[in-house]
Inverse folding.
């Protein structure tokens, strides 16, 4: 209603008798039709809120989830606990850039790189970094996980696609029909991206640094196993606000 009419919530309450112009009525009708077809409000508006930041979203990026704020909390706590100053941060599968923007926003001594395979996602990340005033401390690379990267990072974060291909069709329609497949599809068992990321983690993680990976709520044992095989035994698993396993934390002591 606010977006369609340009009125504030207060005006909507106090001026119930006010006639809307034809433009506003047409916009409202279109928004209502899209919502009735199951499209989330954030997608209709093209923006979402994450970690207190207003971010642009687009058809090609995941609508950032509140659960992912657990990962940001874990990453910030890790940097603090390890006393890492001027951290170099790598966000793999950055999407809208939500995680990267939140970490750089909270740590003004950090520099970050976001990587995504989707060209459109890279453009959205660049836009959001700029609108959050973070362009001068960040870069965006279009690539396949860490393949194009050299050097080392103090903090590596990722919320990779982790839904098993077969399960995608049975997700809620708001997810299955509106989040991009590239952001959801984790391969046959949902764990393919973890294997790919774990493979390169040793090469890119600075000694004394750490990594935080978002996981599906039933994936803790499998992801710990994959990480242990890649040389990172003992990953800690953190739960989200709903007490479900959500983040694997690696301390590269
Ligand atoms: C679950 S979404 C996460 C988006 C964002 N980080 C967030 O938490 O809202 C996963 C992201 O990984 C990207 N992605 C998928 N496969 C990739 C690959 N091989 N290399 C880089 N990025 C990839 C997708 O395009 C998508 O943006």
């Amino acid at each position: 209603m606010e977006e369609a009419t340009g009125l504030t919530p207060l005006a909507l309450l106090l001026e119930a008798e006010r006639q809307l112009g034809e433009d506003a009525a047409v916009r409202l009708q279109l928004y209502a039709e899209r919502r009735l077809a199951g499209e989330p409000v954030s997608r209709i508006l093209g923006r979402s809120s994450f970690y207190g930041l207003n971010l642009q979203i687009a058809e090609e990026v995941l609508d950032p989830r509140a659960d992912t704020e657990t990962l940001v909390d874990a990453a910030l706590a890790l940097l603090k606990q390890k006393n890492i100053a001027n951290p170099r941060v790598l966000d793999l599968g950055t999407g809208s850039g939500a995680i990267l923007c939140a970490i750089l926003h909270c740590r003004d001594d950090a520099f970050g790189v976001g990587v995504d395979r989707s060209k459109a996602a890279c453009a959205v990340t660049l836009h959001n970094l700029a609108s959050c005033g973070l362009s001068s401390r960040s870069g965006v690379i279009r690539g396949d996980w860490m393949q194009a990267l050299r050097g080392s990072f103090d903090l590596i974060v990722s919320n990779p696609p982790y839904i098993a291909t077969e399960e995608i069709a049975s997700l809620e329609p708001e997810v299955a029909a509106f989040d991009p497949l590239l952001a959801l599809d984790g391969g046959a068992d949902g764990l393919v991206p973890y294997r790919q990321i774990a493979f390169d983690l040793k090469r890119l993680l600075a000694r004394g640094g750490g990594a935080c990976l978002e996981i599906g709520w039933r994936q803790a044992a499998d992801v710990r196993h994959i990480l242990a095989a890649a040389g990172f035994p003992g990953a800690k698993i953190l739960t989200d606000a709903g007490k479900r396993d959500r983040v694997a934390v690696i301390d590269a002591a």
Notes: The first helix runs from residue 2 to 5. Residues 61-62, 64, 68, 93-96, 98-99, 115-118, 121, 144-145, 159-161, 182-183 surround S-adenosylmethionine (CB under 6 Å). The first strand starts at residue 47 and ends at 50. The CA atoms of residues 34 and 237 lie 38 Å apart.
